[in-house]
Description:
Blueprint: H1 5-8, H2 15-34, E1 38-39, E2 44-45, E3 49-55, E4 61-67, H3 72-75, H4 78-85, E5 93-97, E6 102-106, H5 118-132, H6 143-155, H7 165-179, E7 187-189, E8 198-200, E9 206-208, E10 214-216, H8 223-227, H9 237-252, H10 256-281, H11 287-302
Antiparallel strand pairs: 1-3, 2-3, 3-4, 4-6, 5-6, 7-10, 8-9
Amino acid sequence: MKIPAGLLAQARLGEDWARWLDGLPQLADDLLDDWELRLDGDPMHGFCALVLPVRTASGRPAVLKLHSDADAEESDHEHLVLQHWHGNGAVQLLRADPHRRALLLERLHPENLNDLWDLEACSIVAGLYRRIHLPALPALRPLTTYVDRWTTDLGRLPRGAPIPRRLVEQAVALGRDFVDDAQSVGTIIHGDLHYENVLAADREPWLVIDPKPMSGDPHYELAPMLWNRFEELAGDVRAGLRRRFHTLLDDAGLDEDRARDWVVVRMVHNAMWAVQDAMRAGVDLSVEERVWITQCITIAKAVQD
């Protein structure tokens, strides 16, 4: 088993990463043997996972997904939610070993929503929201526990940080309100639903993959559909963002004010993390980080103008 070079490069991120990568070939071989799988294509990977095309003993095409511990807080409950969705609007879970952080999933096609006009993609995602936003499972972590922590961090951000103070103060106030709001929890949310996390399939045109599940608020979901494919909005960014935003709202039947406020909170948190990363490293913000922060601010303003 050869690990893709792009995933091996993650060893630079620390000893835990290096240890997981060192053991990954043996882990993959063990699971292939234990689950009677055979390789059926080249390995693929995301930031935190190895994905192997395989065939089962019966010849069914599938993929074996092996998670690192690096995103444990986000991916611990992926198997529970996929099992609960039972393939309704989402990739079907065939088998799971939570201890080894391994999932066997139905194999989908490589095509994703990047291949479609962005507003058509927004309409598809809005329809998927309706199917995956079910009552939350008791095991899921509440969205509010994260927002409470992030809001505290935001309140401590230096006044000289390159984020408009008005937006910082607004996001802090909104975050605190959401933490105290019972409607901020109670629904299964994906957490990172964007164009590349919806793949073409045989049994349905499009299916959701790679949830980072929480017990949360459906209105939290919209922001990734705004910041991804951002470069396509050149010319009239504000109008393009608002078209996406309102397509998602209208087709999913969501509340505009609540969705807007969550977008503001999420985008200011994203900008804050870029600032924090540079501060922890003791370096100035890179050009790419400054561009990202500007993008976050642009989105937060566009949904409010």
